[in-house]
Amino acid sequence: MKKRNTVLLLGIISIIILTSVQIFIIRGIWKQKNEMFALKYTMRSQEALYFINRRISSDGFDTVRYVLSRYSEQSSREINEIRDTSLLALKKKEILEYFTVALNKEQDLSVLLASYFERRGWEKKFVYSIVIDDLDIISDDTVSIIHRQDSPGRLRGDLRTRGSLREYSGSQILVNWFEMEDNNYRLRFEYFIDFSDKQNLILKESAVTLAMSIFSIIVVITIFIITYRNLMEEKRLSNLKTDFINNMTHELKTPLSTITVAGRTLEMSQIRTSEDKVIETARMIGKQSIHLNQLINMILEISMWERTQFELDKKNVDIEELLNDVVDSFKAGGGNGAMINKRYNLNGLKAELDVVYFTTMINNLLSNAVKYSDKDPVIDIEGFHSEDSICIKVSDNGIGISNTDQKHIFDKFYRAPTGNIHKFKGLGLGLYYVRKIAEAHGGEVRVNSRPGSGSTFTINIPY
Ligand code: ADP
Q1: Is residue 323 within 6 Å of ligand 1 at its C-beta?
Q2: Which of 60, 157, 333, 459 yields a CA-CA distance of 20 to 30 A from 440?
Q3: Could you say which residues of the chain have pLDDT below 70?
Q4: Pocket of ligand 1, candidates 431, 453, 455, 456: which has the most ligand atoms within 8 Å of its Cβ, to mutate?
Q5: Which pLDDT value is given to residue 159?
């Protein structure tokens, strides 16, 4: 149990480690793809800007320039006349708002960029944003409307001067920074684009890597589950074998020690004088030898039963007669005073059966019905037939079998846990033989039982 838990724990830990490593790798790849995407579109937008500049000699802000120049001329005059500081602040706010709206409304760059991207077959669905870094209105004095120290473009000024435009803050890509100036204003702003479908595009690109990672995790988990189940099955079988060896030793020792004691008894002179006692002891030796012989045969036969196909010596027999013989000899051979009710509806039906094996099969069921009983055993044996098969049911009023045990009782060496404490003797072979014999006849055996409410074994054999 401890070993089993350790194996399970180790397996789960390895799977968690593996999954974490995979997630780590995937995150790395994702980040890299993001950066690649940003870099790719930075370069593409540079290419587009260059093209637009050359082709139409415009930077996409011609209308903006015209609008702002007219507006700034008027506002420079107005601002000159304002003395009150709070009014000045309001005016500055109004100017900034106007510049922002004008820049956004009158620019043509986004349309030009999108159409260039489209022509090249690249992604063209993006949103743009414009950030004003510096704005001065020039009148008698220069009035600073906004001056941003922390603008991303300013922070990356070194990159800009070299013409390598990059901006990875969030998902925005810096396309360029622009400067405009005339007699009445000085403006510097940055133009960003942001792809709304970016995550989907990256997902598409990484689909193969992602699928492979998920697939490899699934493969590893499946292999682990299969290995673990095999290991547990091996463990179960090895436990069964150990139990079997213990049970067998116990079973063989009992008749052997009885025979040894009986032998010693016969050596005693006072016993030899009584003929009755000698006969009784000799009988006991005989009985135990038969039992011992049966046990040894049972063990020796295991390999024979393991063969999928074994030879049946089939004869055409009257089933009812055969069942009666089996029940009679079971009673005579120490049926332990069990009450056996017979109910047959076989109408003298005859079938091809191996008499010896068939007898062993019914006998095993009857002796289990007696063995696994905690009160006076009452056994019902029923026999009937359908159009093409014979059905034999053996029911008892014994201790019953739990659902879990029912799944295994027909397995070789399996004994229900209560059976292992030697209260009920056995080798875990009886029902295995029952199943083998039923199958060898082309049939099957089923069990129906509830703990405390007895059991019913049903054998179906086609004829
Ligand atoms: P054995 O009797 O030698 O243990 P079997 O193969 O005949 O081996 O039975 C396997 C197990 O099935 C038994 O250990 C017992 O727990 C359970 N069993 C079989 N027949 C009955 C029955 N009639 N009532 C209750 N339990 C049964």
Answers
A1: no
A2: 333
A3: 1-3, 150-170, 307-310, 334-336, 418-423
A4: 431
A5: 37
